[in-house]
Specification:
Blueprint: H1 3-13, H2 18-37, E1 42-44, E2 48-55, E3 58-61, E4 68-71, E5 74-81, H3 83-90
Antiparallel strand pairs: 1-2, 2-5, 3-4
Helix pairs in contact: 1-2
């Protein structure tokens, strides 16, 4: 499923137009990015949490030459699914009738 598919599902599930659904999707994604860029954690209850993970610098090998190289420290995004999402994906629980988990702005 990609962005366009999600927007189409939003249109089908709500009374939003495609343009409004796209604008809502953009606002949501921008909010998540902003929360992460500020070093925070973004939690969507019933779905999961996004957080920034800092990787330490480490030594690696160039696979072509075998030469040892230093891999610099970097930041990446980590996602931890909520227990509720894990249950739905594994088939242990049916999807909620509303189809939308609660959102925690913190």
């Amino acid at each position: 499923m990609n962005r366009a598919d999600i927007i189409n599902k939003m249109v089908d599930a709500t009374e939003l137009t495609k343009a409004e659904a796209d604008k809502a999707m953009t606002a949501f994604l921008d909010s998540v990015k902003e929360g992460l860029m500020n070093g925070g954690k973004v939690t969507i209850i019933g779905f999961g949490s996004f957080s920034v993970f800092e990787r330490k610098a480490r030594m690696g090998r160039n696979p072509q030459t075998g030469e040892e190289i230093e891999i610099p420290a970097s930041k990446t995004v980590k996602f931890k699914p909520a227990e509720k999402l894990k249950e739905v994906v594994s088939g242990r629980q049916s999807k909620s009738s509303s189809g939308s988990p609660e959102v925690d702005a913190g």
